[in-house]
UniProtKB/TrEMBL annotation:
Keywords, in A-Z order: Metal-binding, Nucleus, Zinc, Zinc-finger
Compartment(s): Nucleus
Protein name (database record): Protein FAR1-RELATED SEQUENCE
Gene Ontology molecular-function annotations: zinc ion binding
Organism field: Solanum verrucosum
GO cellular component, one term: nucleus
Any one GO BP annotation for this protein: regulation of DNA-templated transcription
Amino acid sequence: MSSAPPTAILTDQCESIKAAIAEVLVDTIHRYCIWHIMTKLPAKLKGVWDFKIAKSEFKSIIYSSIIINEFEEKWAGFIQKYELQYRLWFHNLYLEKEKWIPVFLNYYFWAGMMSTQRSESMHAFFDGYIFDRSSLKQFVKQYELALRFKYEKELQAEADSRKKHAAPYSGFDWDLQLQTHYTRSIYDVFAAEHLKRLYHCEIERHHDFNVMEGVEKYSVTDYSISNDFHGN
């Protein structure tokens, strides 16, 4: 840190933390964990008609707004549509919009982080190595052991990826190319999410007269087989 305060900091939404950062880290950009805010949404939308649609619309406003004016317009429309003007939680969130809405914070470097979950996952990584009552000496020793284990595990994964190539899921050249760039475990994840869908989908052409000349419009949906049989 070179004895300098952090440029930005990510914490849970908490008034005491907010006050402390404002007093001690005056020039630091303070961001709230968006995940913790979203976990409260179901309770705060209680009683709203079409809850699932409202929840989906709220998330779209938060994550998909590209410019500030777009967010402002969509937020106002959402509050009015679901009659949330007198719900204090939404009012307070709007007042602190610059601390958690992505469109206000994308100008700063966050290394892809919007949630403190990443730090919580690091806590889980050290489970079994460090405990509440561990002394400082034990902490240093166990910390080194945990990092060594992680390093060796990554080396093993790298070696396995270089020596053992998985059978390609498709005959495409780019499929083979992915195996040279991804580790085996990451390739398997990618294949499960994307490549396998190539063979389990239906493609339907649309005769839409509004489509530009020379452009064809299709929709791709999951392929399914019905096992329903109707007897007499």
